Amino acid sequence: MQIEFRLPSLGADMETATLTQWLKKPGDAVRRGEAIAVVETEKGLIDIECFDDATVAALVVAPGTKIAVGTVLAQLDAAGAAAKPAREPVSVAAPAGAGVTARPPAVPAAPAAPASAAAAARRSRLSPAARRRAHELGLAPEVLEQRAAGAILHVEDVERLAAVTAKATAPPLDARTAMRNVIGTAMARAKREIPHYYLGHTIDFGAARTWLQRYNAALPVQERLIEGLLLAKAVALAAARTEGFNGYFRDGRFERASAVHVGTAIALRGGGLVAPALLDADRKDLRTLMHEFSDLVGRVRAGHMRSSEFMAATITVTSLGEDGVETLYPIINPPQVAIVGTGRVTERPWVQDGSVSVRPLLTVTLAADHRVSDGRSGSRFLQAIAELLAAPEKL
Amino acid sequence: MEARDIRTRVLALLTAIAPDIEPATIDPARELRDQFDFDSMDRLHFAMAISEAFRIDIPEADYTQLGALQSACAYVQHRLGASARP
Amino acid sequence: MAEQTAAVSPGPSEHLNSGAATAAARMTYREAAREALRSALQADPRVFLMGEDVGRYGGCYAVTKGLLQEFGPERIRDTPLSESAFVGAGIGAAIGGMRPIVEIMTVNFSLLALDQILNNAATLCHMSGGQINVPLVIRMATGAGRQLAAQHSHSLEGWYAHIPGLRVLAPGTVDDARFMLAAALACPDPVLLFEHIFLYNMEGELSAGLAGVDIDHAAVRRPGRDVVLITYGGSVHKCLAAAEQLGAEGIDAAVLDLRTLRPLDDATIMDAVRRTRRAVIVDEGWRSGSLAAEITTRIVEQAFYDLDAPVARVCTAEVPLPYPKHLEDAALPSPARIIATIRQLLAKGEA
Amino acid sequence: MSAARTGAVTRERGLRLLREMLRIRCFEDRCVQLYGELKIRGFLHLCNGEEAVAVGAMQALEPADAVVSTYREHGHAIARGLALSPLMAEMYGKESGTSRGRGGSMHIFDASKRFYGGNAIVGGGLPLALGFALAQKLQRQSAVTACLFGDGAVAEGEFHESLNLAVLWRLPVLFLCENNLYAMGTAIERAEAQTDVSAKARVYGMAAASVDGMDVFAVEDAVREAVARVRDGAGPVLLELRTYRFRGHSMFDAQLYRDKAEVEAWQKKGPLITLTTRLKALGLMNEEDYQRLERESGAEVEAAVEFAERADWEPVAQLERFVYAEQARG
Predict the structure, then answer these.
(1) What CATH number should be reported for the domain whose range is B3-19+27-82?
(2) What stretches in chain D show pLDDT beneath 70?
(3) Are C105 and C152 in contact (CB under 8 A)?
(4) Parent domain of A130
(5) Domain limits of chain B?
């Protein structure tokens, strides 16, 4: 019966050895317990014992070679010994002592971290660093905690929250400059961390504009819509239908958001921008959306912001309105993965079916996260917006 | 209604829909949009407030006349004059 | 046979390793430790080595193999199994003008010499009003991971780092294994050098042009922005492995090797904590009253307002180390446990 | 101490002692192979060559007596009556091992047989043995405590402290020094100014004798007589059992500290050869007896290996159990 004679492990921390000398040659008989070879280890020369009465068939490893524990050194012919059940050799890497039958139970990833003794009442908590940053930005921790609705606030959170509340509650001038650089750092970090790509698309806003004028003419002031709302609804529907623009990028991967909450950028007096969300903008009709949008802006102006609203946005729309330039290249609002920007609607020449005419044109731009989407899906997204705006009655 | 009354009421309406504007700093002749980032929603809110307060309907085309404080007051006076009430 | 004591002339008092700066070389931690001993013995006739089976047997972990043949039985002294006796003898010989290096086979046996180390070595200078100092170096293997079961797997660096009067070092790299000994010998006070048993077989690059290392500062082994892993000795490579894997997931973990456990290099520790605002301490000791506990307290005392999260600790489970591999692995700090701790630290939700 | 009274040398007694020694020899040879196959890990210290000490000593003890051993303990445990299967399972680290798999080769325990374990700290067992003997004395028990240790422990402070206290308090403890001439890599004459261990014991006023540790009859007779003395309350006794280990201190040992000729010389007067030569000379056994006993031992060891291979690992969830005693509830 053929036996593979392997280099045995001789010590708790012995991983390799160098064969220095064979004490037997092919054809020699070897008795149980007799040394068959000598190896050099960290501790010096050690005889290697054979555990079977056998004859040497072939020597596999030449003297002078360094080998790992478990390597086959020689082939032996067992002298008629009863065939021993071949037991699976344990590879050096395998956890030593892995028996044939019993598998060592998998080591759990980690003992569960001790649950905090009593789950703190849903009071949100400011980390010490966040508390100090809040102080620097002239923000009362209580206001921040009330805004954070139960989450743990870190430095970045304070900086984002400060971007809103400090402005809305008309803080003293120096805090406003502190506000300026807080938003600056948030933007800089987003620019640095998120690999942006940009796409622009000019569309004929004529259909939407005439539809809106006719729609508003029939209604009192209180029920009229504004152009920005049509855009928000179009973006919401397009985001719902195109993969990779609606959701968050966190812990190294994209989390697709199930609902579509469109962050609508509202310029704050004296600098700064917030983008509270129109919740489920893809599913609500224009009338309801307008009512919510109007209420949202009113509360921003009055400083009564709900933190959940501006933390909830899954995509953002930002516009320069009537007095801006034609094209706007926005920065993504982390952890979101896309933002749509629009410039001013301007009367410009437009070629259609070979003839040129003057049309109210709008340049819609997209800034998106290249880790999640790319130019091809980005342009499909912008074309969807254009098609939706071309049939405003269906919004 | 006296011009002075109209002005105080219109100013009150403006600060109601834009509490973050300091009334004393308003230049009546200049466009609100240029002074305070007065966007389309603000203008709509301003028009709604005036329409309710003075019970007058304001067609979209007239919005531009509400662009500055002074022109807004003049517009109201004009509209009230036209339908003067005791 | 009577021991002739060769005439021993006091060597140069300041003898930083005067060997020429080294060329870059790849060697094991064991070879670096052996080279350190050889150059120490060559550099100063007052240096001698004493310990169980350091001579004929070649050292329990083969670190001292060949030294007896090179330096002779007077300077490479096998001792009986009498830890208290030969450690105390080391203390006496150091005061008496020699520069002994005592090897205690493992920290597990050092408990038999703890009285000599604490009540004599660490205390004599202060107690004698500064008249006596103890320029002694004690080397010990430490740590677990080779299934040697409870009595042979202790990690008690934290005990010794508790004692004023001692300096405690944990060489975790080939460079430190090669050069910390010389700096320790140059120190007028007793220095304990802990060599983790897992490191002996570890191969590493000995930096080129290195003539010595300091024993006063921690070292950043890997820069990072999101969290710092504070560790030493046998856990350094575990932290680097964890940091590598986290890097692939966009989490940037720094690794700080303490190198000196007493005195702790507070300045470098706090600087690392301020940069990342999150700290995880990886210590093979049991957490209660551990080195990790001491460092956590210092961070809370000195960098409290720079923390974005509570300091976390990954220590050995509070059990005597069991023999079976799967239980020992579950008890010891591991890359998997380090990564899980960091993920939880960075989570936004409820702690 | 008078020369050991020699018990009768009969075929039954001879084969019984031979069988016990073969079971130990076969068990440990199999462990060497299993260590090479990574099935056994950690440190492994073998008593190959010292089987007569284990068997001779344990034959002379009563079940109620306490036994304290060292990390070179497989022979002591087997001779004391611990079953091979749980013993091999302990070598593997399996839950059905003698210590639930947690101790391994150096920490074998069996409270039911009053086998109070191996100890990996040299000399660590001596003070423990004093305690067992003190409890036996205070509770007026007739049981005694046997404390086994090697020549290495003689150099530890605990050797001095324990012998002194044992004599001072006339404790029923039997110190059995298994002197195999080497403390790991240091020969006794390079570690001890006085190498006659029994002479050291007499300095404390303790009865002591030196015995040929390779002659299992001599060991049994000497231990039987010493135990009788201790059980009578005459105070502690030390026996120095001169023996030799044929393999390294532990698995990873190049044995640089002794030469092969010395090992081979001792192997010619090993415990098995000494016993079989004498029994054959007296016509009390033949080669066929030897082959039968060796086959039986081999089969028993293989069964133990199968038991260990099939046995389960202790679940990780139980890692923290028994850090503190679990009082039998209810």
Answers:
(1) 1.10.1200.10
(2) 1-6, 328-330
(3) no
(4) 125-183
(5) 3-19+27-82
For chain D, the domain total comes to 1
Spell out which chain D residues touch chain A, with contact meaning CB-CB distance below 8 angstroms. Answer: 29, 32-33, 35-43, 92-94, 250-254, 256, 308-313, 315-316
Reported pTM? 0.66
In chain C, where the domains are located: 25-206, 219-346
- CATH number of the domain enclosing D241: 3.40.50.970
- Yes or no, beta carbons of D38 and A102 under 8 Å apart: no
Residues in C closer than 8 angstroms to A151, CB to CB, are 348-349
The amino acid sitting at D144 is V
Q: Where on the phi/psi map is residue D22: left (φ > 0), alpha (ψ -120 to 50), or beta?
A: alpha
Q: Which residue of B has its CA nearest to A298?
A: B17
| CA-based nearest residue to C143, from C153, C128, C135, C133 | C153
Q: Do D93 and A49 lie within an 8 Å CB cutoff? A: no
Tell me if chain C has a CB within 8 Å of the CB of D81: no
* Domains in chain A, number: 3
> Are A239 and A169 in the same domain?
no
**Nearest-CA distance B63 → chain A (Å):** 10
Query: A275 and A366 share a domain?
Result: yes
User: Residue A215 burial by CB count (10 A; 0-12/13-18/19+): exposed, middle or buried?
Assistant: middle
B63 contact A CB<8A: no
Query: Is D301 a domain residue?
Result: yes
A43 CB within 8 Å of a chain C CB: yes
Do both A279 and A336 map to the same domain? yes
Residues A237 and A335 in one domain: yes
CB contact under 8 A, D186 and C330: no
Interface touch D309/A101, C-beta < 8 Å = yes
Q: Are residues A163 and A215 in the same domain?
A: no
Tell me whether residue A233 is in a domain. yes
Mean pLDDT across B35-56 = 84
Q: How far C81 CA lies from chain D's nearest CA (Å)?
A: 5
Specify whether A162 is located in the same domain as A226: no
Tokens 């109210």 belong to which residue? Answer: A360
Choice among C31, C103, C152, C157 that is catalytic: C152
Strand bridging mode D186-187 / D182-183: antiparallel
Measure the CA–CA gap between C142 and C156, rounded to whole angstroms.
8
Summarised one tens digit per residue, pLDDT across range C305-316 is 899 999 999 999
pLDDT, tens only, C245-285: 999 999 999 999 999 999 999 999 999 999 999 999 999 99
b/e map D125-137, b = 16+ CB within 10 Å? bbebbbebbbebb
* A155, A232: one domain: no
Distance CA D77, CA D45 (A): 13
Q: Does the beta carbon of C337 lie under 8 angstroms from any beta carbon of chain A?
A: yes
pLDDT of res. A134: 84
Q: What is the mean pLDDT of residues B42-71?
A: 87
Query: Under an 8 A CB cutoff, do A213 and B20 touch?
Result: no
Q: Which domain holds residue D223?
A: 11-311
- Here the CATH number for the domain that contains residue A356 is 3.30.559.10
pLDDT in tens, C291-343: 999 999 999 999 998 999 999 999 999 999 999 999 999 999 999 999 999 99
Architecture in CATH for domain C25-206: 3-Layer(aba) Sandwich (3.40)
Would you put residue C41 in left (φ > 0), alpha (ψ -120 to 50) or beta? alpha
Q: pLDDT at position C298, please?
A: 98
Q: Which of A104, A110, A128 sits opposite C325 (nearest CB)?
A: A104
The reply to whether B41 touches chain A by the CB within 8 Å rule is: yes
Q: Is C30 in Cβ contact with A127 (below 8 Å)? A: no
- The correct answer on CATH 3.40.50.920 for the domain covering C219-346 is yes
H helix intervals, C142-276? 157-161, 174-185, 236-248, 266-276
Catalytic-role residue among C31, C35, C52, C83: C83
- State residue D2's pLDDT score: 43
Considering the domain architecture, whether residues A350 and A222 belong to the same structural domain is answered as: yes
Please tell me the predicted confidence (pLDDT) of residue D4: 43
